[in-house]
Amino acid sequence: MKIVTLLGSPRLKKNSATIANRFTETAAALGAETRTFELNQLAYRGCQGCYACKKGHEQCVLQDDLTEVLSAVQEADAVVLASPVYYGDVTAQLKGFIDRCYSYLKPDYLTNPQPSRLSPKKLVFVLVQGHPDEALFADIFPRYDGFMKWMGFTDSRLIRTCGIGPASVDAVPEEVLRQAEEAARALAG
Fold first, then answer.
1. For labelling alongside 122, which of 54, 142, 155, 180 has CA 20 to 30 A away?
2. Which domain holds residue 87?
3. Looking at the whole model, is its pTM more than 0.85?
4. Which has the closest alpha carbon to 83: 94, 72, 70?
5. Phi and psi of 101, rounded to 5°?
């Protein structure tokens, strides 16, 4: 099994990365081939709305650091998207990647019963928010999950923790880390 992890936080080795890394380490120990990209370390642009991926090209025509990431995701069996919650949403780094995923959709995606160019994939979405109210920002995962299902991510799961801000280094609850391990075992075991 090939697993690609995308870390959307600009703060390396912090809470969302800690959870994603626990998932990845567990999956690797079970024999999965893993690859991690730190999006904030890459130079890339968001979707330009050029529609080249719908008019004669089967992938995004932009050539930047995200080209390799999009290719790796296309080849993966499972993808981990990890992000803290910034201003009620995923980070700009992760959102830029998600926007570029538009290239995975076929030209007739609106009417095609098989709208994605991707083979079916599994998705793990990791969200960490500083605000302790679980009802706040609970719409993030369902909103993105709908788009990801459209793109061929058939099996998705959420690992989410609330009340952990950037000052709470190494404060990820052990139960959340166990969720990451269990998710890895379910996907890679």
1. 54
2. 2-188
3. yes
4. 94
5. -65, -10
Number of folded domains in the chain?
1
**CA–CA–CA angle 148, 64, 76 (5° rounding):** 40
Q: Which residues pair with 10 in a beta bridge?
A: none
What is the amino acid identity at position 111?
A: T
* Per-residue CA distances from 170 to 19, 43, 59, 152, 181 (Å): 10, 28, 39, 34, 17
Q: What is the DSSP string of 117-182?
A: SSPPEEEEEEEEESS--TTTTTTHHHHHHHHHHHTTEEEEEEEEEES--TT-TT---HHHHHHHHH
pLDDT one-digit tens code per residue, 69-117 = 999 999 999 999 999 999 999 999 999 999 999 999 999 999 999 999 9
The CA–CA distances, whole Å, from 127 to 8, 54, 91, 144, 172 equal 10, 31, 10, 12, 12
Q: Which residue, chain included where needed, has tokens 């993808």?
A: 79
Separation between Cα atoms, residue 90 and residue 16, nearest integer Å: 11
Amino acid letter, 21: N
Nearest to 82, CA basis, from 146, 122, 125: 125
The CA distance from 69 to 1, in Å, is 17
CATH code of 152's domain: 3.40.50.360
Helix axis angle for 15-29 and 174-188, nearest 10°, is: 40
